[in-house]
């Protein structure tokens, strides 16, 4: 059995929402799936649900990820990147505090 990680469509007419599922590649697009791995809303371009550990499990046992899900993984990885802390942002606050301190001593 060849397993693929792909989209299945849910939602109403003209308002699609896609589930990311692990499914036998011979099944229909909206047919029975093995496991729900997440949800994506293309209208708002938001990933509603994402089960990274389960996706990695299916890939480790030989599941093939489709191109559209790979593209979504790249978007998710960019969103999850840690923010860079800039030291210069802290320095101006310290300068303001030092200027305020001498004014209190002169009173």
From TrEMBL:
GO cellular component: cytoplasm; small ribosomal subunit
Record key words, sorted: Ribonucleoprotein, Ribosomal protein
A single GO BP: translation
Molecular function as annotated in GO: structural constituent of ribosome
Family to which the UniProt record says this protein belongs: Belongs to the bacterial ribosomal protein bS16 family.
Matching NCBIfam families: S16
Name of the protein described by the UniProt record: Small ribosomal subunit protein bS16
Protein's gene: rpsP
């Amino acid at each position: 059995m060849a397993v693929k990680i792909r989209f299945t469509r849910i939602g109403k007419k003209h308002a699609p929402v896609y589930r990311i599922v692990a499914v036998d590649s011979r099944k229909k697009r909206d047919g029975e799936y093995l496991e729900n791995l997440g949800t994506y809303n293309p209208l708002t371009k938001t990933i509603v649900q994402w089960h990274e550990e389960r996706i990695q499990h299916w890939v480790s046992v030989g599941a093939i990820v489709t191109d559209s899900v790979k593209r979504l993984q790249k978007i998710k990885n960019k969103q999850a990147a840690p923010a860079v802390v800039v030291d210069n942002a802290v320095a101006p606050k310290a300068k303001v505090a030092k200027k305020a301190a001498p004014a209190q001593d002169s009173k």
